[in-house]
Design goal:
The complex is a heterodimer of chains A (530) and B (326).
Chain A lengths: L1 H15 L9 E6 L14 H7 L7 E3 L5 E3 L2 E8 L2 E6 L13 H10 L8 H4 L4 E6 L2 E5 L19 H6 L16 H4 L7 E7 L3 E6 L13 E6 L3 H9 L5 E3 L6 H6 L3 E16 L20 H10 L2 H8 L5 E2 L13 H5 L6 H10 L7 E7 L6 H13 L4 E7 L1 H8 L9 E6 L7 H8 L17 H12 L3 H18 L2 E14 L2 E2 L14 E2 L2
Parallel strand pairs in A: 1-10, 1-11, 14-15
Antiparallel strand pairs in A: 2-3, 4-5, 5-7, 6-7, 8-9, 9-10, 11-17, 12-16, 12-17, 13-17, 18-19
Chain B lengths: L1 H26 L6 H4 L6 H10 L6 H13 L13 H36 L4 H15 L2 H15 L12 E3 L2 E3 L4 H34 L2 H8 L4 H38 L5 H11 L2 H29 L1 H9 L2
The chains are: A alpha+beta (530), B mainly alpha (326).
């Protein structure tokens, strides 16, 4: 319907002729950092891929209600357990006018296998491709893969001819060559917008693609993206009307936006879960006054910590009421989320926590160092401070080490041998499926699993369930397995889930946007004016 | 003279090497760059492989030597964050910083010197006193606060000026200029004032102090006794004699204007080298940080050289001394 009326307007204005720009709508928005590259296979990061989705598209896409629908693939089916067949949409053209064919899809799969690609994880899901005809392609998977399609939204299709002509057959490499990759600064996708100008770190200019094949209700004709690093400048730019939308807005600035004319904060639950974790792997903690043993190996200590942390107080005092306390490691937007389990979070109970500590032999508590980022998540350092003061009530003296994300991650991640005893981390499953956090955060560190399991939580059953979940095609059985894994993890206090942090955008009254739970702005649903 | 310049340029190489060495020694404390280059789903093996490809595991002397050898050939490497050659990035960002710095320097001199002269001549005037009070504010308020206050007042409340960025620019060859468009000029006002304010007050106070000193000297008194008009005494005799220290300070300050443009640039999202540096620090983009620091060291050396040459032009005694043959 809407599309039709836009087409009608476009026709009408074309008829009027040169005086048409009354319909031209410019949308200007700012984020705290820049899109790192225009190459769709250069960086597997939500912000970068989310931005690129306006230009490039994958076989499937999530619509405004986060439902996975066909994009460049019209339909798909599991023709055998390990083969997915995709029917490619006919009549789609790239911005340079080339038609989309199955060859381009096969080429894009090859491209994400190249050295510079950061999408090798996705490439690993596909053993080989087989082009059946111009508009049919088979993906052979190494194992039965029921959720393959859900993981393909972020795998974008590039035009083979264009890549060949511009020497961009391989993905942009961080190491680089002399001149850099053509696809790093230029783009040629099938999406509703095409790239007009790219100044990395300064400005990126997009223009509506008049030949777009699909549904994009937006009336934006020109979109200008600017990174603005300083919070105060970003908020000022919105209030002054220099930009139409900014994100993130510091939670502390919401009142300011509410008080200002013509702008308002737009908040919603993000799919990012913030949690605490403990080193349960080492025989002795690296940073503690307890020597010769590791108190976190004792489940009662972990339970005591769980009971001692008051997530509602963190919500009220630190997050201005905008966070969603959680008992699970996944958000409601994630496939596999079970509201009943989420409610099962152990209650805040200091006396019980003290009793558990005494039972475990730590009636007088102990000292431990906590690692915390201070510029990665919403109010991350303040959450750590609040947790530290809550733990002080059960005798645990937390020495807080809050530092910038580059230093924090450099310390606690695998490359530095998980150098932490107690930490705060956040996670958004890139696939929007529970298997992702189960595998990355909650499985034993072995065979490529548990890469972000910083504390080394290890339960063989959870790991086994995670493997089974990956291949299970029966949704009911799969959900039962997810529930079982989450239940074990919750009962053993593998981590302490705190909350889903809020999305915090600032939007001019003149525009309407759709807020995706992964903090991505999709220009397809931006409307300017009334 | 040519020998003098050559010796100075030679010195600059040593200075730059020293800066690069110190910078490299510090980079290991900035954090780990790998996590900013890959997404969360990138496997540990791929991370390790990338680290090896970039040579980040090599010992410090090897990394430094590699940088120094490449830099000597004018090759500053490849930005981790932008995935482009650092030299191209600097070329792109250089005009923005230079225009901002030069406009600020001119503003500081053009306003600072007359204000200094005025406050020296009319020491007890009401206007002089208010200049002096204002200059205290200029010296004591931190740059970012001045920037934020200007944005709040002229950008958000009055809405006269753009709050961020450089506005429309016109490309002249590889140089981009915002001085030729109305939007560009409007965007320049607040950052230029923010950056100039400290230097302006510094120059004003310096000129005032020097003027007061010179006005007390005998040759000024003789000038007056000869019946020369006040304007001639003040501007041709007194002011000219205050200029040597003013040139020194202003010259050195130009270096710091360029270097400290970092703060102004990040407050106003001004797309210059300073902003690029700040972004590089946040993302641990080592090649960009190294190139920037070395470049800034080079600027300081060159500016010092120019200042020394200007002495010859302004102070005849130096020329006489050399002619006398030491």
């Amino acid at each position: 319907m809407r599309l039709k009326s836009i087409a009608a307007v476009a026709l009408a204005s074309a008829a009027i002729g040169a005086h048409m720009p009354a319909q031209a709508e410019t949308f200007r928005w700012a984020f705290q950092g820049d899109v790192q590259t225009m190459d769709p296979h250069g960086l597997f990061e939500t912000m970068t891929l989310g931005f690129q989705r306006n230009i490039y598209e994958g076989l499937v896409i999530r619509n405004e209600t986060m439902e996975t629908v066909g994009a460049l693939a019209e339909s798909w089916e599991n023709i055998s357990p390990k083969v997915w067949r995709f029917k490619i949409r006919e009549g789609v053209t790239f911005h340079n006018g080339n038609p989309l064919t199955a060859e381009d899809v096969a080429f894009s799969v090859e491209r994400i296998r190249s050295e510079g690609s950061d999408l090798k994880v996705v490439a690993g899901l596909i053993e080989k491709t087989e082009v059946i005809d111009d508009y049919t392609i088979d993906f052979h998977t190494p194992n039965p893969d029921p959720i393959l399609v859900n993981q393909l939204e972020i795998f974008y299709i590039m035009d083979r001819e264009w890549a060949e002509a511009n020497g961009a057959l391989e993905a942009t490499n961080v190491k680089g060559g002399d001149e850099g990759n053509f696809a790093n600064l230029n783009a040629n996708g099938t999406g509703p917008f095409r790239l007009v100008e790219r100044q990395s770190g300064v400005k990126t200019l997009l223009e509506r693609n008049p030949d777009y094949w699909g549904r994009a209700p937006t009336n934006v004709t020109t979109a200008v993206f600017t990174p603005i690093g300083q919070d105060a400048t970003r908020v000022a730019a919105l209030i002054s009307g220099d930009v139409d939308m900014v994100y993130p807005v510091p939670v502390q600035d919401w009142e300011r936006l509410e008080g200002a004319d013509g702008v308002a904060p737009l908040a919603g639950p993000e799919a990012r879960t913030i949690f605490l974790g403990f080193d349960q792997d080492r025989a002795e903690l690296l940073y503690s006054n307890i020597k010769g043993k590791n108190p976190f190996k004792d489940m009662r200590v972990r339970q005591a910590f769980m009971h001692a942390i008051n997530v509602d107080a963190i919500k009220a005092k630190v997050m201005r009421g905008a966070s969603q306390p959680t008992g699970l490691m996944v958000a409601p937007a994630v496939n596999g989320f079970n509201p009943q389990l989420n409610e099962a979070r152990p209650a805040y109970d200091v006396d019980k926590a003290k009793a558990l500590m005494a039972e475990a032999g730590y009636a007088d508590g102990f000292e431990v160092t906590m690692d915390c980022p201070n510029d990665r998540y919403v109010n991350d350092e303040k959450i750590c401070q609040a947790a530290a003061s809550m733990l002080a009530r059960i005798g645990v003296k937390v020495d807080l080490l809050a530092q910038t994300k580059s230093k924090y991650f450099g310390k606690v991640l695998a490359q530095n041998n998980y150098d932490t005893s107690f930490f705060l981390l956040g996670w958004t499953p890139s696939t929007f499926d529970s298997h992702n956090p189960l595998s990355a955060l909650m499985s034993c560190r072995q065979g490529g699993m548990g890469a972000f399991n910083l504390g080394g939580y290890c339960n063989e059953r959870v790991t086994e369930l995670t493997r089974m979940i990956q291949g299970e095609t029966d949704q009911a059985k799969r959900q039962a397995m997810i529930d079982e894994a989450f239940e074990i993890h919750l009962q053993e206090v593998g981590h302490i889930p705190l909350h889903q942090q809020p999305l915090s955008w600032g939007v001019s009254d003149n525009v309407t946007v759709v807020q995706r739970p992964d903090n991505v702005l999709d220009l397809r649903y931006v409307m300017v004016g009334n | 003279m040519i020998g003098f310049i050559a010796a100075r340029l030679l010195q600059s190489i040593i200075v730059m090497l020293a800066v690069a060495l110190i910078a490299f020694a510090l980079f290991r404390f900035v954090g780990d760059p790998i996590n900013n280059m890959v997404g969360q789903d990138t496997t540990l093996e791929e991370r390790a492989e990338l680290r090896e490809r970039l040579g980040l595991d090599d010992p410090f002397p090897v990394q430094f030597a590699r940088f120094a050898i490449n830099a000597a050939q004018g090759e500053f490497g490849f930005s981790y964050q932008h995935r482009r050659p650092v030299s191209a990035l600097i070329t792109e960002r250089f005009p923005a910083t230079m225009e901002l710095a030069l406009v600020s320097a001119i503003l500081a001199v053009a306003v600072g010197i007359p204000m200094g002269v005025y406050t020296a001549l009319k020491r007890y005037g009401l206007l002089s006193r208010s200049f002096m009070t204002l200059s205290l504010i200029g010296i004591s308020l931190p740059t970012f606060l001045i920037g934020i206050l200007l944005i709040l007042f002229f950008g958000v409340i009055l809405r006269w000026l753009p709050t961020f960025g450089r506005g429309d620019v016109i490309a002249i060859g590889w140089w981009t200029s915002g001085l030729l468009t109305a939007d560009g000029l409007r965007s320049l006002i607040m950052p230029a004032i923010t950056l100039a304010l400290f230097q302006m007050t510094l120059i004003m106070r310096l000129v005032r102090a020097e003027m007061l000193e010179v006005l007390r000297t005998d040759f000024v008194k003789f000038g007056r006794a000869r019946g020369l008009p006040d304007s001639h005494v003040h501007f041709s005799i007194a002011l000219k004699n205050t200029l040597v220290p003013v040139i020194t300070i202003t010259g050195l300050q130009l270096g710091s204007i360029i270097a400290f443009a970092i703060i102004t640039e990040s407050v106003f999202q001004w797309p210059g080298m300073g902003l690029m540096f700040i972004q590089a620090v946040a993302e641990v983009d080592i090649p960009v940080m190294a190139a920037y620091l070395v470049l800034i060291a080079f600027f300081f050396v060159v500016i010092n050289l120019i200042v020394d040459l200007l002495y010859f032009a302004v102070d005849p005694r130096l020329r006489v001394d050399r002619a006398g043959g030491h």
